[in-house]
Write a structure and sequence with these properties.
Structural class: alpha/beta
Strand order of the largest sheet: 1-2-3-4-5-6-7
CATH superfamily: Metallo-beta-lactamase domain
Largest sheet: 7 strands, mixed
Strand content: 25-35%
CATH class: Alpha Beta
Radius of gyration: 18 Å
CATH topology: Metallo-beta-lactamase, Chain A
Bound molecules: zinc ion
Helix content: 10-25%
Number of strands: 16
Oligomer: single chain
Shape: globular
Distance between the termini: 51 Å
Number of helices: 6
């Protein structure tokens, strides 16, 4: 199992665990407990990585129930997430062995292989080497988060904001202390909306936009972007570009380019947005 991601303290007591450029789970440490947002593919020993930073109890929150964000839930007895994503998380086999190689790759090998497999076939991103964490808690509890719920970590609070669209129950975490919005696979330069209509997505994003005075930086769930050492944050302009695309699609100003009968896309302001477009009958 791989144990050496690049850990970056992006603000006081606020860390991003750059999993070789593939995913970037976040860790926020309060005086009472820590909040871990996402666990990556499951080929990193997240618990020992977290224990290098803090010995406080850890609350695991999932941005959404996709396997590249919850692969490591095998190490956690309790998992907090949006209720609409609980069925997908329950169906997920935390103990699955994706692929086993006879040697653990170096960071360089890992990134090169993952990047080339991803370019060849995006779904192959899951077929990368490394031993997957064992499921230590088969009777795990999935605990629903409420929209706008405030979570107190002791001396610092974070807020759960609904960000539906990429999945039925994606959430973002707003950290008031670091003034960072952790946006999962929602607000990001490559945002694919397949699980909600664009009006619902827009409503959620307008609600997040109303909190703009509480954050300066946005880190999405893949902020490492295929580079194990780099980490990029975005600003509110990323959210505004997404809103502009949605507004134009809703009012017909720019309906986007068809990708298939049911999928449309548009590139604007550094964002490539994909969305489901119901077939006209
Ligand atoms: Zn996803």
């Amino acid at each position: 199992m791989i144990q050496n991601p690049i850990i970056i303290e992006v603000a006081k007591d606020t860390y991003i665990l750059n999993l070789m450029g593939l995913q970037s789970p976040a860790l926020m440490v309060g005086t009472e407990r820590a909040l871990l947002l996402d666990t990556g593919l499951g080929n990193f020993d997240m618990m020992s990585i977290v224990r290098r930073i803090t010995d406080k109890p850890v609350m695991l929150v999932l941005s959404h129930a996709h396997s590249d964000h919850m692969g490591g839930i095998g190490q956690f007895q309790e998992v907090y997430l949006h209720p609409a994503d609980i069925p997908a998380a329950q169906a997920f086999d935390a103990d699955r062995l994706i692929h086993e190689d006879d040697h653990t790759p170096t960071q360089q090998e890992f990134v090169a292989r993952a990047a080339s497999e991803f370019r060849a076939k995006p779904e192959n991103i899951f077929a990368i080497p490394g031993t997957i964490v064992e499921d230590t808690f088969p009777s795990r509890r999935f605990i629903p988060l409420q929209p706008d719920e405030i979570i107190d970590l002791g001396g610092r609070q974070v807020q759960i904001l609904e960000e539906r669209g990429h999945t039925a129950g994606e959430i973002a975490v707003l950290d008031f202390q670091s003034r960072i919005l952790f946006s999962g696979d929602g607000i990001s330069p490559l945002f694919s909306i397949t699980a909600a209509d664009i009006q619902t997505v827009r409503d959620d994003l307008i609600h997040i936009r109303a909190h703009a005075s509480d954050f300066d930086r946005i880190y999405h769930g893949h902020s490492g972007a295929f580079d194990p050492t780099m980490l990029c944050s975005d600003s509110i302009s990323l959210l505004d570009a997404i809103l502009k695309i949605l507004d134009d699609a809703i009012d017909g100003t720019d309906p986007g380019q068809p990708v298939s009968e049911t999928l449309r896309t548009r590139s604007y302001g550094g964002v490539q947005l994909y969305w489901n477009h119901p077939k006209e009958s």
